[in-house]
Amino acid sequence: GQKAVVDDVIDNLAAARDPSLGPISRIASDETLTDVALSIAGQRKKFERRLSRADIYSMFDAPTDMTIEDVVMQAVSRDDLKFLKEMAPILSGSDAKRDQELGAAFNSLSTDPGITVLRALESKFVFKSGDRAGQARIGEAPPSKALRDGPMQSLMERLNELMERVAEARRLRLSLEAASNTFALHDFARAFLKRYRSEKSALGVLDFDDLIEKTAQLLTTRSLEWVLYRLDSGIDHILVDEAQDTSPQQWDVIDALAREITAGQGARQNRTLFVVGDKKQSIYSFQGADAAEFDRMHQTFRDRLKAGPALQSRELHFSFRSSSAILSTVDALFDASGASGLGGAISHRAFHPSMPGRVDIWPLVPAASDDETPEWFDPVDRIAADDPKIKLAGSIAEKITELVGTETITGENGAPRLVTAGDFLILVQGRGPLFEHIIRACKARGLPIAGADRLKLRAELAVRDLLALLSVLALQEDSLSLATVLRSPLFGWSEKTLYDLAQGRKQTYLWAELRDRRADFPETYSALNALLRQVDFLRPYELLEFILTRFEGRKKLLARLGPEAEDGIDELLNQALVYERDGAPSLTGFVARAQSEEVKVKRQLDGTGDMIRVMTVHGAKGLESPIVILPDTTRQERSNRNPILIGEDNVPVWRMPSDNRPEQLAGAVDAAAAADKEERRRLLYVAMTRAESWLVVCGADTRRSGDNWYGDISSTFETLPHQKIETPTGQGLRMSHGTWPRLTVKEAPVSVTKPSVLADYLNEPVRPTTAIPSILAPSDLGGAKALAGGAKEEEAALRYGRQIHRLLELLPKSDRSWSAARRILEGGPDPVEEGEIDGMRTEALSVIEAHPELFRPEALVEVDIAAHLSSLNRQMSGTIDRLLIANDKIMAIDFKTNEIVPASLVSVPEGILRQMGAYLEALQNIYPDREIELSILWTATAELTRLPHGIVRNALANTTTS
What we know:
Shape: globular
Number of helices: 33
């Protein structure tokens, strides 16, 4: 792809020691240099104008004969620094804190003038923001008025003069740095574009911009006018669709073609130019679209057609999609005061005025608490359990679960029908954490969901683990990949086990150490060795399938990472097939290709059937849905992060940090920010108008002040007629139109399932084997025991579970103090750190206090149970944490210390349900005449989940044992 070519060009420039690479590398990090080059490639026409160093420096009023060192020497001398240090004791002796801080700053200054000293003085002597930005802080504290009028009065004239010099030096420094960086940008652009063209020519490829540029050249070069002449005779009509998303370069092509049918002899009768566009929906600036260009071309065609048939401009006010409730909200939001960038105030008319509709606003999910201090060993990007985005995703999934099959909506024929999963379209501004949380929450509740609309293959954890395993199979000396694989869900090693293997080895590869110690790790070595034996006989796709099926890789990855990992796994298999079609396949070649290319898969979700769609607003352009949910509404107005700005005369300039920006860049920065804000308004318009009948607006509080979609919609809602409603996040508001459809009992669809006729032998039990089977433990029943996403390693989670169980068994019998908890934990088989005791004790006590009935003296604790399970034809032995026996009922409660607690019954892990199904069958054998009640007590939240018999029986029926 283009990125690979750009990376090659940068590597070639580095290999050739091109002098332009050094300066640009100093201002662009390794991570952003490729982005800078891609931005240059996308704006190559703006770099065609060759500017000299003097031209660029004059743009910033910066002298070409002065360096930063010269600026420093003019502003600050050694005597000045000595003067400031002599002043420090006076400042330090002041009662004012700011005086003391200034004195400390003067004391810490170096005695040699330099850029560091100048920056330090700028921070104390110059206003950084406000109306006086860039001016000297003369007459302002510090020094305080008491010092200025007292002990320092005789020193103030010299200090003020120094402040003025520093302020002027700052202005010069900012101009010089901006000019230097912009010159470095243009110098690099010249070298890069020259080599970029050569590289594409050598490869025989064109990028997207080349196709447009070459076409425009073909139509505008005077020596090639015969091309237009030949085309003109065959063109009667030009139709431009989605004109608001057309880039200036694309307009050049359209303009060249249109000139012939709007001027001279070419303007013959019945020739038409038909342009369809909606400025309100121009949201693709990152692809070159320019809403201002849409207006300019509109005026251009109007002027050109004055001599002949006038240009006819028509506006379509009817909406054939949305209900009046949604359109009224949109019109109120984007009235004259809020229509910046949309082409004026908006007024819609519903084509179906009687169609009922709703707009709901849910209260924001409160921000996470700051009370909990993270442990030092926690990952810096660890998501808190009470993260508002996770809670919001869960609330959305729960609401969808509640509505599907119970709520009604107007169908295509106007008749009421039941809501289905395919009616929901969830739109976000970007594919961030909220996007992933929503997909995960829906899958956890068993809702049919189409998955991500765009997939970055190498960003998927499951894909990275599989590629690491393939790297090891291709090259056993790749110790880093082997360590990655061992720690992955494919092998599930703990950090301690890996450390024990790796730490003591003597300059040997990790694979060699594992091979030498295979007796200590027989299962791991055997599995890897078995895979290595297949490498020479299987193509990449077949090897991946072998890993995922025979080696149970898919099962292991999904159990740890959750069902959302399946999309990435399937796409990696697909990429393996694509690779094999392109040439002779090899494992090394496939791994190199998969790790070097950034594969982005765009999935079409407009024909996904009866499935929930979660998409970005950009991806949903042109789509519609009966119910649209907007959860990503609290994202702040983001500033354009492109390091290249467009300055005066359409000249690219380097964006400087906000605290290091000269006044000459203010116009370019403000213009970019205004354009970005206008596009975000248009993005909101597109998002809201995807809804047909029902629009839901919600969000997660981020505690950040500033403009956002939620605030805009909420303030608008107050001016509209609305009513209060209960929502999953609290009391919300609803604006409705018309009478919401309801199905009568008669109209409700009835599902009739015909019984299947099975062959007799399928109903006969399998004949038991003659071998005596081993006794089953609950852990032998299979199935996941926890939801994906927990931060603890498997070994640490098991240890934690044993310790909580021990506390719940023994703490109720003691004084429940911290010291008692410590004695109980230290008396157990597992080691415990002092820092862990508080959290474990708190968790155990919250369970005991929430459910005192389970800890009464008559409750049986850690009850061993053994029974024959006729459903599996096996003997089972296990331990029930709590058993309460009454005359007519048996209550069995199992404690679970899972980090992530299932949000609903449908998301309880399969392995837990199987275990409880086995306990149910065993207890029914022992107490056939009593009611059996099964429950799970989640210690993390002290919640008790009642398990219906049908669910656990079905789970047990899915068990396969050997």
